[in-house]
Amino acid sequence: MMEQSVTYANLDNTIELKRKKKKKKSLRRECLLPLSPLILSLLPLQTLNKPWYRHLANEFARTFGSPFHRIQSSMILKFILGLFWYLLHIVVSLVHIWSYVIQQLRCYIISSGLFAKYRNFSLSRLRYLAVVVDSQEAKHTAKIKQLLSWLSAIGVKHVALYDAEGVLKKSIDFGQTRLRDRSAGTCLDGDVNCVTSRNYEEMSIELLSFTDGKEGIAKAASFLCSDHLKNDSDGCGRTETLFTEANMTKALKAVGYYGPEPDLLLVYGLARCHLGFPPWRLRYTEIMHMGPLKSMKYSAIVKALYDFSKKYQNYGS
């Protein structure tokens, strides 16, 4: 009788143990259900033909291959991806808001003059400043004149204004007087496009457009060609033609389109490029993008000039 009771007890324990194992297996399947497509997708392609991979794929297909399981796992995966995208969007928005607040606070501090370093800094390295404006924004002449007023107040002496379509040349009237005499000394290198203004007596202003660069290159090439033909009149074109940078510089100076090289170029507009500014004048120029002209700020100009005054430029050996 005792032996029979022990046998029944062992049988009950065995049944209970099997029930627990079955329950644990079902729980494991439920946990793996949402992740099964992801696990299979992460396996390397080199294992496609291996027996253990086929066995694993068959097991997953048998266990999780019903339509209900596939729909449930797809919904969970979409929910996780959507939640991740939403959180990422929130983080990026917070970073942009924080950056905007810091920028506005910096602009206020610079404009109020709380930092002495932004009030007193040297412009000795800034002999010539170029400002590139998008042609659509160049039509706002009030903004352009405000910009020149600020630059004059900061202490900038020589400015080149550029827009590709020549809007500034047509729309801005300073009571300009064109200077073609190098002995006048008002403009660096006596460029023919340099103008002075009654409103900005201590500042020389040069107006440029895309045609100045195109026309300058054409005239320089014509000068080089005629000079070469004149020097090679006896050689019947047998000598090899070789033009160097020095020859091009000489030709540009001869036709009056060389001009000074700006130390700093400020770009106003959506494009982060010089928009066709004469490239031979940008060999060592520092370029800064200032954003749209309509959002122009005095503090941003001061900060740009201050940052330039502290930069180290290595021109090579």
TrEMBL record:
Annotated InterPro entries: Nus1/NgBR (IPR038887), UPP_synth-like_sf (IPR036424)
Alphabetized UniProt keyword annotations: Endoplasmic reticulum, Magnesium, Membrane, Transferase, Transmembrane, Transmembrane helix
GO cellular component: dehydrodolichyl diphosphate synthase complex; endoplasmic reticulum membrane
GO MF, one annotated term: ditrans,polycis-polyprenyl diphosphate synthase [(2E,6E)-farnesyl diphosphate specific] activity
Cellular localization per UniProt: Endoplasmic reticulum membrane
Signal sequence bounds: none
Reaction equation(s) it catalyzes: n isopentenyl diphosphate + (2E,6E)-farnesyl diphosphate = a di-trans,poly-cis-polyprenyl diphosphate + n diphosphate
Cofactors named for this entry: Mg(2+)
Main enzyme class: transferase
Membrane-spanning parts: 83-102
E.C. numbers: 2.5.1.87
Coiled-coil stretches noted in the UniProt entry, renumbered to this chain: none
Pathway the protein acts in: Protein modification; protein glycosylation
Assigned protein family: Belongs to the UPP synthase family.
Protein name as it appears in the record: ditrans,polycis-polyprenyl diphosphate synthase [(2E,6E)-farnesyldiphosphate specific]
